[in-house]
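User: Teach me something about this protein's shape.
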Amino acid sequence: MSFSISGKTAIITGAANGVGLAIARHFVDQGANVMMADRDEDRLKKEVPDDEEESGNSRIFAGDLREKLSQSNLINATLDAFDRIDILINASRQVLPTDTLDPDDDSVEIMLQQNLLASLKLSQQVAKKMIEQAEDAEPGELAGSIVNLSSIASQRSRSGLMGFSIATAAMDQMTRTLALALAPSMIRVNAISMGSVMSASLKQSLKDTPGLREDITRHTPLGRIGHSSEVAEAAQFLSSNAAGFITGQIMAVDGGRSLLDPVETAAH
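Assistant: First, the predicted structure itself:
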């Protein structure tokens, strides 16, 4: 069974930096048609200049995907550019600290909106298009793949990361529930549960927190921080026909971190 995604069309959110950008670059290199979506239009344009966008297999879309209109515009832009949608990678996420006992702290609401609800609404809209595309498909033929980015923080309790932990735990349950709902339509839904992978937020945390790198590697059995390219390769596998009998699963890409239980160490 092939891991190939060549010729498939993918929407990748959070694609202006970090892990989302790494996934987008990898998918382009693997021959997929990629719509890179993010709020940061300037960074998107740096990654995909106008001349490359016109001639290559990547396009950019700038908009706030918490808004329904932006989601609809993203889908229409993708269909205009590539005629179909085969893959959705929900890689847009936000990591904020939470003051657990402060009733005025709104970080939980912010991360639920950004990390969970925006991904849910976009997944629902994209799934409708995938189902329409599959109307003439052969019985049993796969109609599409949705991959969500989650975190092992969903399984860990740490007061300073309460909002992020809640949002990722909900993301895992959303993944399983959508997988059940979309299985009859031959759309697979899985998630990648990341440990400490070199994301934009982790880079900033490493700068701001002396000793954090050593703390992370000490609590990671493989003894290092993960590369964003390793998440991109996992996303490719879950998006490809090689994973055709896999749905509703939360794949840990964490260097073995979830095998341990050090709650005092941040999980990003």
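Now, about its shape. The radius of gyration is 18 Å. The CA atoms of residues 39 and 160 lie 26 Å apart. If you'd like, I can walk through any region in more detail.
User: That's plenty for now, thanks!
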